[in-house]
Design a protein that fits this description.
heterodimer, A: 315 residues, alpha/beta, six-stranded mixed β-sheet, 11 helices, 28% strand, B: mainly alpha, 15 helices
Chain lengths: 315, 380
């Protein structure tokens, strides 16, 4: 597969602090790449450098095999960006907003009209074309924001946390839309704090921390990096400190967390961990509401690699 | 075309405010014309006077009273109501003729006349009449005339009339209306330009929308040029509307040299207002702040520079401050044009100097806008 983006040795400093530190990675044609990292890890700086919104100190960025520069208009023609913040005109209706941003790329009126209608259909705003942004809910506004970013049918699309503070209906609509765009052949770079979305959408993931790639690969490849094999969660449980210490000392137990009546025990390996734990509770006459076992999630991998939570899961 | 069309759509959403400023201009321009028409004919007026004579009403005293009766309205008022009458402006002036008035005049002394005055222009006129009588009487007394001869000579003097012929071809009344309209235009133009340009720039130069434009395939310089052109076109359109309105309201006097000078001056001011709007639009990005800024800039400079109140009524320190504002030079030019009888190199020089000041302001504003934009771009 061809490389759509190639970033080599990218370095960006703010005064003396390195926001991006000799970063190298590539994005393959037609894939959805998840760009993950805690706040301040250099995600936004990297994207802004790729888009030539920021000057960088070192490195080279090529898109579609050509060097990306602020005046590389032929490359820019094929790029769409959906920023986290909604960037639309309050004075224009939904259809006029999409038409304006599409018009920055597409001159032909007839083609543009079709493209605008396609974008409206993709994000499901058919009933709201004559609405002004102030008349739309947060979720619909985000959909409009997406339509404005992708209406010119770009080959490469950047999504920067497009589902923040969005209702479930709009979120599903947005994720379905992104899948459709990929099916139509677009290459997508997706940044989010929601692990569930990453697992649902991304073919490959790059985890950034302190401006460097600390891990990359498919979801399974990343999960394989984890030293955890099983995670058992117990809800609605009241435990004394001594009991927690007892569990922590068991063989194969990697870590024990107890917060807000929820106990999470992670195991390096071992069989029958769940039954052992249930037997222990029965023996000690400890009551609980719910107990379940699961494989480590991407969030656990992220936590292990960066020492930080990415973010809580869906609200 | 996409940017220009969107510019028009955003403008269309805010057309109400431009129409409002235009309606204010037309309303005041029209109502000023109505007021002015009532004052086009000259009507002589006499001050209202109360006279208290303590001298014997014979000879010069009698003549003085007759003189006052001829030139003023002598009113009969109860003695205890005199002060009230003066306070309520029922009379403008009170003259107390002393007991030895006639004798003092005949002896070459200045009679001790007591007066009370409202201090207005009618009272000043009464004061002038009084001083004139005493001076003329003193002159003839010093020449050695008898009382009868003094009265006879004074009658001849007072009856003497000077014919004044106005040779001016200037239609001052209509020109006055033109100047009022175009002075007021400085407010409407400045307010309209600042409001609309700031609003449009705050939309198009909004950081998030700018980001989207920069990453698009639209050339950034071309985008800025289109914005500049669109705003310029708006200002030009607004100016043309105001000029057409002035032709409708004021007629063909605007086709005279004086009228055309004023129209050209307003064109220069429009460019100046546009550049001021660009400076403010570059600094301010908050739409909610625009209304307040329009009030401070447009209303403030219009009040300080004499757009609403004639310049001659403004205190000196206000006019000193106004020198720093382009509206002052614009309005000053209009006022100058109004007073020029014939336009030649000598009379047009101060007008050109004032217009030159407007051009200096335009250049200054462009430089400031470029400086701020450059600083902002570097920061971003």
């Amino acid at each position: 597969m061809q490389k759509t983006i190639e970033v080599k040795n990218l370095t960006k400093k703010y005064k003396t602090k390195k926001a991006v530190d000799h970063l190298s990675f590539s994005v393959l044609e037609g894939e959805i790449l998840g760009l993950l990292g805690p706040n301040g890890s250099g995600k936004s700086t990297t994207i802004n450098c790729i888009l030539s919104l920021l000057h960088f100190d070192e490195g080279k960025i090529t898109i579609f095999g050509k060097e990306m520069k602020p005046n590389a208009y032929t490359i820019k023609k094929e790029i769409g960006v959906v920023f986290q913040e909604v960037a639309v005109f309050d004075e224009l209706t939904v259809i006029d907003n999409i038409d304006y941003f599409c018009g920055l790329y597409i001159k032909d009126k007839k083609i543009r009209k079709d493209y605008v209608m396609d974008a409206i259909k993709l994000v499901g705003l058919e009933e709201f074309t004559k609405y002004y942004p102030k008349q739309l809910s947060g979720g619909l506004l985000r959909r409009l924001n997406i339509a404005c970013g992708i209406s010119h049918k770009p080959k490469l699309i950047f999504f920067d946390e497009p589902t923040v503070a969005v209702d479930p209906q709009s979120r599903n609509n947005i994720l379905d839309g992104i899948k459709t765009l990929r099916e139509e052949g677009a290459t997508i770079i997706y940044t989010t704090h929601y692990m569930e979305e990453v697992e649902q959408l991304c073919d490959r993931i790059i985890i950034l921390d302190k401006g460097k790639v600390i891990a990359s690969g498919t979801i399974d490849e990343l999960k394989a990096l984890s030293s955890i094999e099983e995670k058992i969660s117990v809800e609605g449980i009241v435990l004394e400190k001594e009991r927690i210490e007892e569990i922590r000392k068991w063989e194969y137990v990697e870590a024990v967390r107890y917060e807000n009546s929820i106990l999470v025990v992670t195991y390096k390996k071992g069989k029958n961990n769940l039954t052992d734990l249930m037997d222990y509770f029965r023996e000690k006459k400890i009551e609980y509401n719910k107990i379940f076992s699961e494989r480590p999630t991407l969030n656990d991998v992220f936590l292990e690699l960066t020492g930080k939570e990415l973010r809580d899961s869906y609200a | 075309m996409t940017v220009f069309k969107t510019f028009l759509k955003v403008l269309n959403k805010n057309k109400f405010i431009v129409i409002l400023y235009s309606v204010i201009l037309v309303f005041f321009g029209f109502s000023n014309m109505q007021t002015k028409e009532e004052n086009t004919n000259f009507v002589s007026s006499k001050p209202d006077l109360f006279l208290m004579n303590e001298d014997e009403e014979v000879g010069l005293t009698k003549h003085f009273i007759e003189y006052l009766d001829k030139n003023t309205n002598i009113k009969n008022i109860e003695k205890d109501q005199i002060d009230d009458a003066l306070f309520y402006r029922d009379i403008n002036y009170i003259i107390y003729i002393p007991k030895n008035f006639r004798q003092d005049l005949l002896n070459g002394k200045s009679p001790e006349i007591q007066v009370k005055s409202t201090g207005d222009y009618q009272a000043s006129f009464a004061q002038l009449l009084l001083e004139k009588y005493i001076k003329v009487a003193s002159i003839y007394q010093k020449m050695g005339f008898s009382e009868e001869e003094i009265i006879e000579q004074m009658n001849k003097t007072f009856d003497h009339k000077v014919n004044i012929e106005i040779t001016s071809t200037l239609d001052t009344d209509r020109l006055e209306n033109v100047v009022f309209y175009y002075n007021f235009l400085s407010y409407s133009m400045l307010a309209g330009c600042v409001y609309i340009v700031c609003l449009l720039l705050s939309s198009f130069k909004n950081e998030k929308i700018r980001k989207r434009t920069i990453i698009s395939s639209m050339n950034d310089r071309k985008y800025n040029r289109i914005l500049l052109f669109s705003n310029g076109l708006f200002a030009l359109f607004l100016w043309l509307c105001y000029v057409v309105l002035s032709f409708v309201l004021l007629g063909d006097i605007l086709l005279s040299t004086h009228g055309l000078l004023i129209v050209f001056n307003s064109f220069l001011f429009t460019i100046c207002a546009l550049t001021i709007a660009f400076v403010i639009g570059t600094i301010v990005s908050n739409k909610n702040a625009i209304n307040g800024i329009v009030n401070v800039v447009a209303l403030g400079s219009s009040f300080l520079c004499g757009a609403f109140v004639p310049m001659e009524w403004l205190p000196k320190f206000v006019l000193d401050i106004a020198h720093l504002l382009p509206s002052y030079w614009y309005i000053k030019t209009n006022e100058l044009v109004k007073t020029i009888e014939k336009i030649n190199i000598d009379t047009i020089r101060p007008i050109l100097q004032n217009m030159g000041m407007l051009i200096v302001f335009i250049i200054l504003m462009i430089l400031i806008t470029n400086f701020i934009s450059h600083k902002k771009n570097r920061r971003n």
